[in-house]
Predict the structure.
Amino acid sequence: MSAFRAACVQLNTGDDVAQNIRAATGLIREAAAKGASFIATPENTTLMAANGGAKLEKSFAEEDDPALPVFTALAAELGIWLLIGSLAIKINEHKTANRSFLIDPTGTVAARYDKIHLFDVALPDGESYRESDTVAGGNVAVIADIPAGRIGLSVCYDVRFAQLYRALAERDAFLFTVPAAFTETTGKAHWEVLLRARAIENGAFVVAPAQTGTHTGGRRTFGHSLIISPWGEILADGGTAPGVILAEIDPEQSRAARAQIPSLLHGRRFSIKNDATLAERRQSAEELPPKD
């Protein structure tokens, strides 16, 4: 497995799809000019609308999406592996898929991944999000092969589900992609520590391109695109402005980290006393008859 230069493109995407395509294209070209052969863009690369309904109105079926042909042609022109962090792909009149695309240097889509875990939360500052209202979650984890080895695809909120990354690592993924549009609130608290944890516990590189700044409708994202080593070191940090970060990726470092701390080989099956899950306990409580 040979080393290569990876790049994260950090964007401040709005609701003008054509302008967003131009902005992403310019930064992808910049990254390629700086020697990157693997370039990743954030979640919602071409559309950050005011709300889910507005996003649905401006979304397209995959065969009609205006961005995908631009990005496949660009990957072929530049001879790069290009991960488009996600596009909102309309799957019916009510829902989109939050879909990541890995494009190879011939311009062929080598892998697609639909975000599995949807962001339905109420934050302490009063912000709330219901991604599942207008997005259909995926149910298939995806590993793709690039010349340097196997990589595992994920999107944003997936990073909170360690079992996904363990499953990818156990199937020999040496690098995880985590394109995101992390909120400013959760980003300050959790973004770096979650990404470093996923890298450390699996001995894997993490390439995490992010949205940044204020978007249509007032939503604020955290920025700080990160590239992290298998030992948990931050190799590059994008700060809070749109732009490009780069780092050298040597798959041998993943192999070495896993040899030094072989936790992927040490997992054991176990049972749990009082093993009702949280969801099962809640359902059981809801089914109790009311008290007199």
Notes: Helices lie at 17-33, 52-57, 67-78, 162-170, 184-202, 251-260, 278-287. Residues 4-287 form a domain with the Nitrilase/N-carbamoyl-D-aminoacid amidohydrolase fold (CATH 3.60.110.10). DSSP finds seven helices and 16 strands in the chain. The chain has one domain: 4-287.
